[in-house]
Design a protein that fits this description.
Strand content: 15-25%
Radius of gyration: 20 Å
Subcellular location: Endomembrane system; Membrane
Largest sheet: 9 strands, mixed
Distance between the termini: 11 Å
Family: Belongs to the glycosyltransferase 31 family.
InterPro entries: Fringe-like_glycosylTrfase
GO molecular function, one term: glycosyltransferase activity
Structural class: alpha/beta
GO cellular component, one term: membrane
Length: about 325
């Protein structure tokens, strides 16, 4: 596994997404920031209260005055003095270091759950389906919270609590470093998660970051749940202890984001997690990276999504860089 290493000789702030095919990156020289009127971004009127792609918005703003330049020589395949960044090889996580908690409900036991079991669920060593009712044929674990049409906040909080208790009390789970909270229509690659999460320490939370009212300075970031959220095991104790739901069907990912903002836990954005379907993104964007996940079975063949975008041969050694 190759993770991004920023050169100690480089006077840059790096927000990069290098890729093994292109080795591209997005970076900004530190002296540029004092010259930027970042307040202008905050004062910009937006139709939506949500911020989906902060790096894109910043790049557009900077590009109006300071044209972005293509400098591939700064992003290197090995350490050199002139490099801003280069790959730093790390071993991938073992499959027994990741626990998968899948949210489902009784009406999806016969369609969505079997799909998970036939695809990425087979790659997971520790996986459990949490539902509103117990079903021994799957099996599912009853959460004790009735299902809601949206939000699922109380159900999610109960699942995190149950997982933390199980990990703490089960000797076989002492190896677990990450808990992946996924929906029953999340389509993901376990092997790519093993590779991608090896770049992080388990005291943070990783996923696709959205923002709510962040431009006016009074909002907060949160990790959207559809593409899966990777909780470092060290974060769950505080979350379970502190975070509460205003209502049973409050939006779980947004409530978690608001609570986590008070806990000094880092929410780390990874553009390899995807809240939507492949067809909802430009194909050129998806071809840059190796996706970790997609979301939704609506109007799409989930098996085709899995085989085309996420299925990884067992002997395939790839790398995903931050």
């Amino acid at each position: 596994m190759n993770c991004l290493q920023v050169s100690q000789n480089s006077k840059v702030i790096v927000e990069v997404l290098p890729d093994e095919k292109t080795h591209i990156g997005y970076w900004t020289i530190i002296p540029l920031f004092p010259r930027l009127n970042l307040r202008k971004i905050s004062d910009t009127e937006k139709e939506s209260e949500f911020s989906i792609d902060a790096s894109h918005e910043l790049a557009l703003y900077i590009g109006e005055t300071y044209p972005l330049q293509h400098k591939p020589s700064l992003f290197c395949d090995k350490p050199r003095e002139s490099c801003a960044s280069y790959p730093n090889k790390r071993p991938t996580l073992d499959v027994n270091e990741i626990y998968f908690a899948v949210k489902t409900c009784h009406k999806y036991h016969l369609n969505r759950v079997p799909f998970v079991q036939k695809t990425w669920g087979k790659e997971a060593k520790y996986i459990k389906f949490f539902s509103d009712i117990a079903n021994e044929t799957i099996p599912t674990t009853e959460v004790g919270i009735k299902n809601t049409e949206r939000g699922h906040c109380l159900k999610t909080m109960k699942i995190l609590k149950m997982v933390l208790e199980e990990v703490k009390e089960t000797n076989a789970l002492k190896t677990v470093k990450w808990v992946i909270l996924a929906d029953d229509d999340t389509i993901l690659s376990v092997k790519r998660l093993q590779s991608h999460l090896s770049c992080y320490s388990p005291d943070i939370i990783v996923g696709e970051r959205y923002g709510y009212k962040v431009l006016n300075g009074h909002g907060y970031n949160y990790l959207t749940g559809g593409g899966g959220i990777a909780f470092g095991i060290d974060t769950l104790q505080d979350i379970v202890k502190v975070c509460n739901c205003p209502q049973i069907d409050s939006p779980d990912d947004m409530v978690l984001g608001l609570c986590i903002a008070t806990l000094n836990i880092s929410l780390t954005h990874s553009p390899l997690f995807h809240q939507a379907r492949p067809m909802d993104y430009p194909s050129s964007y998806l071809e840059i990276d190796y996706p970790v996940s997609f979301h939704k079975h609506w109007n799409v063949d989930p098996m085709l999504v899995y085989t085309k975008w996420l299925s990884v041969p067992s002997n395939n050694v790839f790398h995903i860089e931050l």
